[in-house]
Amino acid sequence: MVKDSSLEQIGSNQSFGGRQLRYRHRSTSLDCDMTFSIYLPPQAEQGSVPVLYWLSGLTCTDENFVTKAGAQQCAAAHGIAIVCPDTSPRGEGVPDDVEGAYDFGLGAGFYVNATESPWVKHYRMYDYVVDELPALINAQFPIIASKMSISGHSMGGHGALTIALKNPERYSSVSAFSPICSPIQCPWGQKALGHYIGGNATDNNAQWAQHDTVELVKASSKSTRDSLPVLIDQGAADNFLVEQLNTQLLVETAAASAFPMRIRLQPEYDHSYFFIASFIQEHLSFHAENLR
């Protein structure tokens, strides 16, 4: 199945007739070794299948979604592969937050290309997710390159939405759980963009806006609004909802921009993987419909 001997398999488990696999490889975008997980449904034994990329949130690795979301059964039923990259570069020489905070540095790449020192050498998660990893996956696994969707949670929801909005021709659909909708207007985003890209929301407005879902929706073309299906679920009991996520701002912006997003507020659900596991089947069915 895998043709490149430089790709090192470090995990393999049978799951719902398919295989949950884990690999290590050298990333040129990030200039370090990276790991990713990939679920191949049973249909991949007979031919190529569509693929969903999942982007995880702050502090996570490629394994959180794999072990907590319960996605494999539904992915097997729909015949969809799921690729889960890590959330940041890792390893010796990769800089971290000087205070060891959870919301920046290791485990918090924010899916942007850093331009500021010392982050610029390794923190290029946008290039990794958009270009390098899909090229590797398409070359090494039975994947239909033209049938690709993207999803994520929290920081990863921010990544999925901004990446899809910037590259609508590449993705059949996008969904998110509890996404950071406007990094420009929340502490997590202001810290990350300030360090990775430099300046602040006022001084670097054009650069920061390229990584802000609300701003990208404002600037979206009619063709993007007509062709990119979007599903978002947000828990009403999420303790980050008001300060960090700005979901209502996205609801208002999408309405004003005539962007037909499905944004659902789920009563009593929080920010955890219990929330994701409760609705992941609906998200996978949504993507399966659009990947046909």
Per-chain topology:
Blueprint: E1 8-15, E2 18-27, E3 32-40, E4 49-55, H1 63-68, H2 72-78, E5 81-85, H3 125-140, E6 143-153, H4 155-166, E7 174-177, H5 187-196, H6 205-209, H7 213-218, H8 222-227, E8 230-235, H9 241-245, H10 247-256, E9 262-266, H11 273-290
Parallel strand pairs: 4-5, 4-6, 6-7, 7-8, 8-9
Antiparallel strand pairs: 1-2, 2-3, 3-5
Q: Give the strand content.
A: 15-25%
Distance, first to last CA? 24 Å
Low-confidence stretches: none
What best-fitting shape do the alpha-carbon axes yield?
A: globular
The H/E string reads EEEEHHEHEHEHHHHEHHEH
What class, by secondary structure content?
Answer: alpha/beta
Number of domains: 1
Average pLDDT score: 96
Q: Mind telling me which CATH architecture this is?
A: 3-Layer(aba) Sandwich
Instruction: Report the CATH topology name.
Output: Rossmann fold
Outline the biggest β-sheet.
9 strands, mixed
The helix content, as a percent range, equals 25-40%
* Broad CATH class: Alpha Beta
Computed Rg: 18 Å
For the largest sheet, list the strands in their spatial order.
1-2-3-5-4-6-7-8-9
Classified in CATH, the superfamily is: Alpha/Beta hydrolase fold, catalytic domain
**Treating each run of at least 4 consecutive H or I residues as one helix, how many helices?**
11
Number of E-type strands: 9
